[in-house]
């Protein structure tokens, strides 16, 4: 674990997460400013789509292109990344969100900033309704990540599909909570402006944990069952997800056919 922490590849991955998240937040927030009128929902959805696709393409080979703490938590619980890497990724993403928002704030005229894209519950929408919608929107995004990064899927572009998933969530979420789906996207402008709406503080952490637990379980058993043609290996793949060291310590391995993780 400690060798991983101080390796060049690990540092490159963390830096890639920081840079990609900063780019995503900069361009995403830039699309919701008043120039001079607020943009249409479609305009901001397309911009977030393109920003997400660009961020994923930039960091794909270096870090896996999480660019989102909710995605990292889900991958951690799905045994796709180690605890140390997940913690460093989340920190890099949050700092990247702050950096992207800070740069945009510095280069934008005061009269144009407005609320600076801070997520807020819409009128006639309760906190519970907004949090539930965010859960659903982030869930579909994280499931899209799992499907796009599946080793058995050799066609298609993950960057394009993840961007489409972000746009889809934005088109609906805009009317409930200004559409976050990404704690780093909400955290960055809130820190820069110094505004933490009550709903954001209450709803973010529970929502992130629920999404991570549910999608982590889905990614290990339910999602493979739906995606893989060879259903006989679904349980071994789910149990074996992770490192070879984890497989060697897995007691369930005694109950499974004699093959290793590398054969799945």
From TrEMBL:
One of its GO terms (molecular function) is nitrate transmembrane transporter activity. It is a multi-pass membrane protein. It comes from the Eukaryota. One of its GO terms (biological process) is carbon dioxide transport. Pfam families: MIP. It is found in: Membrane. InterPro entries: Aquaporin-like, Aquaporin_6, Aquaporin_transptr, MIP, MIP_CS. This is Aquaporin 6. The chain crosses the membrane at residues 6-27, 86-107, 127-147, 159-177. Keywords: Membrane, Transmembrane, Transmembrane helix, Transport. PANTHER family: AQUAPORIN TRANSPORTER, AQUAPORIN-6. Belongs to the MIP/aquaporin (TC 1.A.8) family. GO terms for cellular component: apical plasma membrane.
